[in-house]
Amino acid sequence: MTSRKKRRMTLIGLGMLALAGATAMVLTAFQENVTFFYSPSDLQNKDVPKGRNFRVGGLVAEGSVEKIGDGATVQFVVTDGGGTVPVRYRGLLPDLFREGQGIVAEGKLNGQGVFVANEVLAKHDENYMPPEVADALKRSGEWQKGQATADGAVQ
User: Fold this and answer.
1) Residue 11: what are its φ and ψ, rounded to 5°?
2) Closest by alpha carbon to 78, among 107, 93, 97, 57?
3) What is the pLDDT of residues 25-77, one digit of tens each?
4) Binding site residues, as ranges?
5) What kind and span of H or E run contains 81?
6) Distance, CA of 108 to CA of 28 (rounded, Å)
7) Which residues does the annotation place in the binding site for heme?
8) Fewer CB within 10 Å, N side or C side of the chain?
9) What are the start-end ranges of the H helices in the chain?
10) So what family is this one in (predicted)?
11) Is 2 strand, coil or helix?
């Protein structure tokens, strides 16, 4: 091989190495910022990463909301009809939060199987249902005719 070909191959190799490094850095950044969604049934049937933030959604089970301790901490159960998960949240709940309401909570699962939420979101009007929650309810057979999805479509 001539020195010119060696130099060209070295530059191509360094370029490919730099491209691979940049791709690895981008994928690592995306992985740290992605928040996965699980339904209560998924939490019972799948291996969920420990110590990692994710979202869980479904309906707040009837008779499950209770204030504990200092009054700022609330514990309730989220269900999708096929599974349940206890949720603990410290802070102000959305005004529309109530039993039977569709919610999405973001947080982590602790060692006792309780989802410790750092944010709770409730649907914003009578017809809205977050798409992840709607899909989970449809899979479990709890979907009610006439409920609307996030895009406003009534199914």
Assistant:
1) -65, -40
2) 57
3) 888 877 666 778 888 888 888 877 777 888 998 899 999 999 887 778 999 99
4) 124, 128
5) none
6) 20
7) 124, 128
8) N
9) 3-33, 40-45, 131-140
10) Belongs to the CcmE/CycJ family.
11) coil
**What does pLDDT average to over the chain?**
81
Query: What confidence score (pLDDT) does residue 53 get?
Result: 86
Beta bridge partners of 67: 74
Helices vs strands, H then E, count in the chain: 3, 7
Other beta carbons less than 10 A from residue 13's beta carbon: 10
Q: Sign of the CA dihedral 61, 70, 88, 122?
A: positive
Across 33-149, the runs of DSSP E, i.e. the strands, are: 36-38, 54-60, 66-68, 73-79, 84-90, 102-109, 115-122
Amino acid making up residue 27: L
Dist. CA 148–CA 146, nearest whole Å:
6
